[in-house]
Amino acid sequence: MKTLVLSEIEIGSINVASQLLSDGELVAIPTETVYGLAADATNRSAINKIFAVKGRPKNHPLILHLASIDQLSDWAIEIPSNLSILATHFWPGPMSLLLKKHPNVLNEITGGSDKICIRIPSHPITLSLLRMLNKGIVAPSANLFGRVSPTSAKHVLDDLDGKISAILDGGQCEVGLESTIIDLTEKKPTILRPGGLSLLEIEKVLNEKIIVNSNLNEKVSGNLINHYQPKALVHSIKTSEIENLTEDLLGAKSVLLLLSDINTDNIQTYSMPSDPYKYGQILYSTLRLMDDRNFEKIIIELPPEKSDWYAIHDRIKKASFKEL
Asked: pLDDT per residue over 292-316, tens digit each?
């Protein structure tokens, strides 16, 4: 199979992508967070292709993408009142909401759970595609399961070239981290996966403190402890530990992703932004770049222990997790 690359500036690209999805094919699509691997959410065969292509466990749920909140009742039931507040402020955008699923939703989407995760992406290309299809699509990250999520069409090709029908190239992703997942199935909203929407923004809108719960038993995308991992081994260190690093200790094919202004003449470094939003924008592309440069070990200086860095800490923790 030859993977088509459909340019966003090429007339008819969205039409081609729409037809491929309608025919049961897989198409990588741009969102403001990361590139997703899209399939028609009503087509069981197409959905199963996602699991096969990614190597994704079938009990690991997929996120449903819609064009409008008007479609929500076709996919979810028992919709809580605080959803409208969140949707008004953050949809379209990097927010996914966990809700009770409609009985007609395919079990393949939810991994057998009675809950479904839904979002409305803000990328104009994908919104146009969703409106043209006039149906939901499921779209986990367009990469091999457990690896670093793609934030460009090139990243998708690196993992899935020849395995999927097409990539709708919408340029570099603006946010660079996956959506924030908020559980609305209980009385109090809970963040199950931190992401492109910050905790402070959510608390401000709802006017209440929000629980952050990394519950590995809850079935949502990205909740596995070993996730977002490059080919290189990843280690995290505190700023106070950097001065003890030497090339002899690390090995010649190691690089330090550095936040601080510290003298590190004895080791290779790569400077990362001090702003958490900008850091998130380039984290995945930086990890992939280090793989392209054939580094065998990536050491990451841990950012500050502040709420606006929470999603970054989550990704570093999962990228550096090693099975015992």
From this structure: 999 999 999 999 999 899 999 999 9
Helices (H), the chain: 13-22, 44-54, 82-90, 107-110, 124-133, 153-160, 199-206, 247-250, 276-292, 310-319
Rounded Cα distance between 317 and 312, Å, is: 9
- Residue 261: pLDDT band (50, 70, 90) is confident
Domain ranges of the chain: 4-212, 233-319
From 136, 131, 120, select the one nearest 179 (Cα to Cα).
Answer: 120
Between CA 66 and CA 315 the distance in angstroms is: 26
CB 31 within 8 A of CB 7: no
| Residue 1 amino acid letter | M
Is the backbone peptide bond immediately before 92 cis, with ω within 30 degrees of 0?
A: yes
pLDDT above 70 covers a percentage of the chain that reads 93
Residues in the chain: 324
- The β-bridge relationship of strands 180-183 and 190-193 is antiparallel
Rounded to a whole number, what is the largest CA-CA distance in the chain? 60
Give the Cα separation of 320 and 141 in Å (integer).
Answer: 19
Q: Which H or E run contains 6? A: strand 4-7
178 falls in which pLDDT band (50, 70, 90)?
Answer: very high
CATH architecture of the domain covering 233-319: 3-Layer(aba) Sandwich (3.40)
Whether 15 shows a pLDDT value over 80: the answer reads yes
- Fold assignment, 4-212: DHBP synthase (3.90.870)
CA distances in angstroms from 119 to 63, 88, 103, 280, listed in the order given: 7, 13, 19, 20
Q: Which residues contact 42 (CB under 8 A, 6 or more apart)?
A: 106, 135, 136
pTM, two decimal places: 0.94
